[in-house]
């Protein structure tokens, strides 16, 4: 074993041990679409006096946090998105009506005199005639009940509230208050009345109440005289605050003074059974697909394929541990991305093994270890470029996607990095250790790379003249595009509610209800414009335009009359403004994807190759969209994630082909380019087929087992992989040949010439690791 192999083996073991420890000791963070709950996106709106910017949105968020805490929701999450949006996630909340009502209220901040210690009030259905509704009994910050007088001052009178550290007076962190002109006099009067009571008396306190919750009840300082009161600019609230507590209190007081109205632009509710079913289906698909992929590469590459399957299992552990350790929220598209990446993780191994097979075929007497090392060296360029294009697609998903689609981008990126590690470190260490074995080297049928594969042997024997008339392939591709465009024009694209706005609710009923009966019941309840379709195993999907939470409750009651107990499985509400924005962002994402991939390919390859690869990519996008139009399948955010993944896969395939064209053309500069292209395609077809099969196993399992939530995602990728494999050979290559006929650029330099010649010579003369140098 060489030193490099030993280092790789130690590194692989260390990373695996850490990954196993993380897997066994930490749990993943599940998104609401997997654990069940409600997600609400709020849009802050400007008022006549207040602009909805970052600062005012933060204040509104803190006020909303206090309100939602009062609902008793377990582990709610509130975050600001951009400048003026707030995302609220409420786990396990299936009826969002109360949450939406609480969120929609305007903040109510009031200041009260404390009349003494309060007593527990028995609940009464109707208030007593002599009860003043403005007088409250509320617990203070420590939980003691206080009897409060009527509101003396509202939050509208607060000019500003700031947290500051009083180092000079030794008071620590304090909150200073400033009031508007008229409110300042009311504050002075309120504190002056409280100062008439002795120090330590509850009546010397002033209660600051936000939405009927005491957020602060400070004592008036003993130095303040009776009826003198505190002037506006001299008011400070003290009391052993930490820096965060002081800032939060200042935000709450100031937020009550400057509430920003909010509008619900998106609301999604997922039942717990749907999330659990998605997790189970994805786990089954991952196991079945991974087992099929492992069996396939073992059959194709024998012992080395089995070792790659072991590395594939290690990849699954490492990528899962990375997701957990980084605290990535695992969403439904993200889970699908994790499963899909398992099938794509064999790509680098396949590239290396096919290169090693070529080396063994060209020089049959060279050692197995030497052929394998050369295979890793020659495959590196294609591995790096193909993974870079997939990382670009993942980055676009994260930065341009919305909601759960971002999670797909994160898991795809982590999967790419983990697959590189498993192929270039774990699989390489295992195969190099095996290659050092005399048994593996002597029995060439065992190792899997010492003999060419069946597909390559058949292609070499047939030697089809693929590009003698390359224009005919472009005609076929143009015809396919025309059929797809006809579907888009004739059938139209069924945009999901995410892009059009409206509401989509899926229900499960205890008794079977056919679509016509359900439609009649809903129409009788006043929802005549609702579209009713079947979904899943006998479920009903109802799509409407504008529908509030009360309307949804009435719609569910109408279905319950026919179907018995009716459970909401999924609920999506998208405001019209957000629908327009998401539709616009989807088009921008596709445009940016094309531009970025073109720029990367133009840097890494000739411009003719870059343009041809991008044309093939656009060809694939049109065919996938056209297929969904003909099939009548919905186009939504998850479809967009699949489409961007297809872009990365399409460019990935084209990169592998053009990388081989560049290499062969540089080494045979006088050979006609169409001959070079034919050889490159024939040499890379085994890689394309074997890699595609790994992804197809996973996607078929997802399509069959994933249910409605993942079936469309898997279908889009299945179509994309098939057309991407076609276009990388029969669209990209003929397109590059056509462009090269009009280009004047010389062929690429031969390998080992120009920059890096000395390194190339050194590498060429490097001795076989098993050669001791002895000669006879």
TrEMBL record:
<keyword id="KW-0812">Transmembrane</keyword>
<feature type="transmembrane region" description="Helical">
    <location>
        <begin position="688"/>
        <end position="707"/>
    </location>
</feature>
<dbReference type="InterPro" id="IPR005665">
    <property type="entry name" value="SecF_bac"/>
</dbReference>
<dbReference type="Pfam" id="PF02355">
    <property type="entry name" value="SecD_SecF_C"/>
</dbReference>
<feature type="transmembrane region" description="Helical">
    <location>
        <begin position="334"/>
        <end position="353"/>
    </location>
</feature>
<comment type="function">
    <text>Part of the Sec protein translocase complex. Interacts with the SecYEG preprotein conducting channel. SecDF uses the proton motive force (PMF) to complete protein translocation after the ATP-dependent function of SecA.</text>
</comment>
<dbReference type="Pfam" id="PF21760">
    <property type="entry name" value="SecD_1st"/>
</dbReference>
<feature type="transmembrane region" description="Helical">
    <location>
        <begin position="586"/>
        <end position="603"/>
    </location>
</feature>
<feature type="transmembrane region" description="Helical">
    <location>
        <begin position="407"/>
        <end position="430"/>
    </location>
</feature>
<feature type="compositionally biased region" description="Basic and acidic residues">
    <location>
        <begin position="121"/>
        <end position="138"/>
    </location>
</feature>
<dbReference type="GO" id="GO:0043952">
    <property type="term" value="P:protein transport by the Sec complex"/>
</dbReference>
<comment type="subunit">
    <text>Forms a complex with SecF. Part of the essential Sec protein translocation apparatus which comprises SecA, SecYEG and auxiliary proteins SecDF. Other proteins may also be involved.</text>
</comment>
<keyword id="KW-1133">Transmembrane helix</keyword>
<dbReference type="GO" id="GO:0015450">
    <property type="term" value="F:protein-transporting ATPase activity"/>
</dbReference>
<protein>
    <recommendedName>
        <fullName>Multifunctional fusion protein</fullName>
    </recommendedName>
</protein>
<keyword id="KW-0811">Translocation</keyword>
<dbReference type="InterPro" id="IPR022646">
    <property type="entry name" value="SecD/SecF_CS"/>
</dbReference>
<feature type="region of interest" description="Disordered">
    <location>
        <begin position="113"/>
        <end position="138"/>
    </location>
</feature>
<feature type="transmembrane region" description="Helical">
    <location>
        <begin position="713"/>
        <end position="739"/>
    </location>
</feature>
<dbReference type="GO" id="GO:0006605">
    <property type="term" value="P:protein targeting"/>
</dbReference>
<dbReference type="InterPro" id="IPR022645">
    <property type="entry name" value="SecD/SecF_bac"/>
</dbReference>
<dbReference type="GO" id="GO:0005886">
    <property type="term" value="C:plasma membrane"/>
</dbReference>
<keyword id="KW-1003">Cell membrane</keyword>
<dbReference type="Pfam" id="PF22599">
    <property type="entry name" value="SecDF_P1_head"/>
</dbReference>
<keyword id="KW-0813">Transport</keyword>
<feature type="transmembrane region" description="Helical">
    <location>
        <begin position="471"/>
        <end position="490"/>
    </location>
</feature>
<dbReference type="InterPro" id="IPR055344">
    <property type="entry name" value="SecD_SecF_C_bact"/>
</dbReference>
<feature type="domain" description="Protein export membrane protein SecD/SecF C-terminal">
    <location>
        <begin position="262"/>
        <end position="431"/>
    </location>
</feature>
<comment type="similarity">
    <text>Belongs to the SecD/SecF family. SecF subfamily.</text>
</comment>
<feature type="domain" description="Protein translocase subunit SecDF P1">
    <location>
        <begin position="58"/>
        <end position="115"/>
    </location>
</feature>
<dbReference type="Pfam" id="PF07549">
    <property type="entry name" value="Sec_GG"/>
</dbReference>
<keyword id="KW-0653">Protein transport</keyword>
<dbReference type="InterPro" id="IPR048634">
    <property type="entry name" value="SecD_SecF_C"/>
</dbReference>
<feature type="transmembrane region" description="Helical">
    <location>
        <begin position="610"/>
        <end position="631"/>
    </location>
</feature>
<feature type="domain" description="Protein export membrane protein SecD/SecF C-terminal">
    <location>
        <begin position="558"/>
        <end position="739"/>
    </location>
</feature>
<dbReference type="InterPro" id="IPR005791">
    <property type="entry name" value="SecD"/>
</dbReference>
<keyword id="KW-0472">Membrane</keyword>
<dbReference type="InterPro" id="IPR054384">
    <property type="entry name" value="SecDF_P1_head"/>
</dbReference>
<feature type="region of interest" description="Disordered">
    <location>
        <begin position="741"/>
        <end position="776"/>
    </location>
</feature>
<comment type="subunit">
    <text>Forms a complex with SecD. Part of the essential Sec protein translocation apparatus which comprises SecA, SecYEG and auxiliary proteins SecDF. Other proteins may also be involved.</text>
</comment>
<dbReference type="InterPro" id="IPR048631">
    <property type="entry name" value="SecD_1st"/>
</dbReference>
<feature type="transmembrane region" description="Helical">
    <location>
        <begin position="637"/>
        <end position="658"/>
    </location>
</feature>
């Amino acid at each position: 074993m060489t030193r490099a192999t030993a280092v790789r083996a130690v590194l692989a073991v260390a990373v695996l041990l850490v990954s196993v420890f993380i897997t066994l000791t930490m749990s993943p963070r599940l998104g609401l679409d997997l654990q069940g709950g409600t997600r609400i996106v709020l849009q802050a709106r400007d008022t006549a006096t207040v602009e909805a910017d970052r600062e005012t949105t933060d204040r509104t968020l803190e006020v909303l946090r206090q309100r939602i805490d009062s609902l008793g929701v377990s582990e709610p999450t509130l975050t600001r998105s951009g400048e003026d949006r707030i995302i609220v996630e409420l786990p396990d909340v299936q009826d969002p009506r109360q949450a939406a009502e609480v969120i929609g209220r305007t903040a109510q901040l009031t200041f009260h005199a404390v009349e003494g210690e309060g007593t527990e009030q028995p609940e009464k259905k109707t208030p007593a005639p002599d009860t003043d509704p403005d007088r409250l009994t509320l617990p203070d910050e420590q939980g003691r009940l206080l009897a409060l007088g009527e509101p003396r001052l509202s939050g509208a009178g607060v000019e500003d509230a700031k947290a500051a550290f009083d180092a000079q007076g030794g008071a620590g962190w304090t909150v200073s208050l400033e009031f508007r002109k008229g409110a300042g006099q009311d504050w002075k009067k309120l504190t002056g009345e409280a100062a008439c009571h002795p120090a330590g008396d509850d009546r010397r306190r002033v209660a600051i109440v936000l939405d009927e919750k005491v957020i602060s009840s400070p004592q008036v300082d003993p130095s303040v005289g009776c009826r003198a009161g505190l002037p506006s600019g001299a008011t400070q609230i003290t009391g052993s605050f930490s820096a965060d507590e002081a800032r939060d209190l200042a935000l709450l007081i100031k937020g009550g003074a400057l509430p920003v109205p909010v509008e619900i632009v998106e609301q999604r509710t997922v039942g717990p059974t749907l999330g659990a079913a998605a997790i189970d289906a994805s786990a089954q698909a991952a196991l079945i697909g991974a087992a099929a992929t492992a069996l396939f590469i073992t059959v194709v590459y024998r012992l080395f394929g089995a070792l790659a399957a072991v590395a594939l299992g290690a990849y699954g552990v490492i990528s899962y541990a990375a997701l957990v350790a980084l605290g990535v929220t695992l969403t439904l598209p993200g889970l699908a991305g994790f499963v899909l990446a398992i099938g794509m993780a064999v790509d680098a191994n396949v590239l290396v093994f096919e290169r090693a097979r070529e080396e063994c075929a060209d020089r049959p007497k060279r050692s197995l270890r030497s052929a394998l090392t050369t295979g890793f060296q020659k495959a590196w360029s294609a591995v790096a470029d193909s993974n870079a294009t997939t990382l670009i697609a993942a980055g676009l998903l994260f930065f341009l996607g919305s909601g759960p689609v971002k999670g797909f981008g994160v898991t795809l990126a982590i999967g790419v990095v983990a697959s590189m590690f498993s192929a270039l470190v774990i699989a390489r260490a295992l195969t190099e250790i095996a290659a050092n074995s005399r048994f593996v080297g002597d029995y060439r049928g065992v190792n899997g790379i010492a003999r060419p594969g069946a597909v390559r042997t058949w292609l070499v024997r047939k030697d089809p003249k693929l590009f003698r008339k390359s224009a005919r392939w472009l005609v076929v591709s143009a015809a396919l595009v025309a059929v797809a465009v006809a579907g888009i024009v004739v059938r139209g694209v069924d945009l999901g509610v995410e892009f059009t706005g409206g509401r989509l609710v899926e229900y499960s009923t205890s008794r079977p209800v056919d679509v016509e009966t359900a439609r009649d019941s809903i129409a009788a309840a006043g929802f005549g414009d609702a579209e009713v379709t079947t979904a899943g195993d006998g479920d009903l999907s109802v799509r409407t335009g504008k529908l509030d939470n009360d309307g949804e409750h009435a719609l569910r009651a109408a279905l319950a009359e026919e179907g018995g107990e009716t459970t909401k499985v999924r609920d999506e509400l998208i405001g019209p403004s957000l629908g327009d924005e998401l539709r616009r962002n989807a088009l921008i994402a596709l445009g940016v994807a094309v531009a970025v991939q073109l720029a990367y390919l133009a840097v890494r390859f000739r411009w003719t190759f870059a343009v041809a690869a991008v044309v093939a990519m656009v060809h694939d996008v049109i065919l996938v969209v056209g297929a969904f139009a003909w099939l009548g399948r919905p186009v939504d955010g998850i479809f967009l994630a699949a489409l961007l993944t297809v872009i990365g896969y399409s460019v990935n395939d084209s990169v592998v082909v053009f990388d081989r064209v560049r290499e062969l053309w540089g080494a045979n500069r006088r050979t006609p380019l169409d001959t070079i292209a034919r050889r490159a395609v024939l040499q890379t077809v085994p890689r394309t087929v074997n890699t595609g099969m790994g992804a197809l196993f996973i996607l078929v399992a997802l399509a069959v087992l994933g249910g409605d939530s993942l079936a469309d995602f898997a279908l889009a990728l299945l179509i994309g992989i098939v057309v991407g494999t076609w276009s990388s050979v029969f669209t990209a290559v003929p397109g590059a040949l056509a462009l090269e006929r009009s280009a004047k650029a010389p062929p690429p330099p031969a390998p080992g010439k120009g920059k890096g010649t000395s390194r190339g010579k050194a590498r060429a003369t490097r001795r076989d690791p098993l050669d001791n140098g002895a000669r006879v």
